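ESCALATION

Customer reports they have been waiting on this structure for their group meeting. Please prioritize. Original submission:
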Amino acid sequence: MLKQIDSDIWVAEQPLKYLGINVGTRMTVIRSNSDQLSIISPIQINDAIKKQLETIGVVTNIIAPNLFHYLFASDCKNLFPYATFWADLDLKKKKPDLPIDKTFDYQGGNLNDHLKYMFFDGFKTITLNGFSRLNEFIFYHPTSRTLILTDIAFNFDKSFSFSTKLVSRLIGGYNNLSPSLLEKIATTNKNKIKSILHEILDWDFDRVIMAHGSIIESNGKEKLIKGFENF
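Update from on-call: job pushed to the front of the queue and completed.
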């Protein structure tokens, strides 16, 4: 079900396992002044969530924010065929069967009057295939002072399973808004990441939403700085 967390911003969650670990996943919904809805990292949308979305506005943007969070985007597009499906250019090359309509500008910009975005260039992680680029776009909702991330930082806490807590204590992301050891090892151009972080910190955000972990409701900027200080 959709949960409203501030003016014109909602989230919905579902279970998800990654490499056998329960990490969960979350989508974020942003409403513009004209009741247009942007869905970031869609989950599997059931009838109840679809009705909720239709009650609060019109879905006009469906966003796959990086090269990995696209699993339910096609289903979302089928539910809302007139919405624009946004993604990274490399995702369009990686998955040519996806019904992608537009690709993001790597220079960043405004998706609409309520949503800004930026390319988090150079960030990598370790997958079963080795070192992999994320090509993640991050988002900022000025009205609610909310930063929206996907896979560049995690925040697992006591609400998660024992195995998730154990793993995140070992490799990072437990009670700390930070990337894991996997990203730290895989990402070689640390200076580029520091430069992008400085740009992000120019945004006036307090709350941080990520795809995996518990939402940071306040002091998000300070916690993001702390989480990346040893990156």
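Sent to customer with the following note: The chain has a mean pLDDT of 94.
Escalation resolved.
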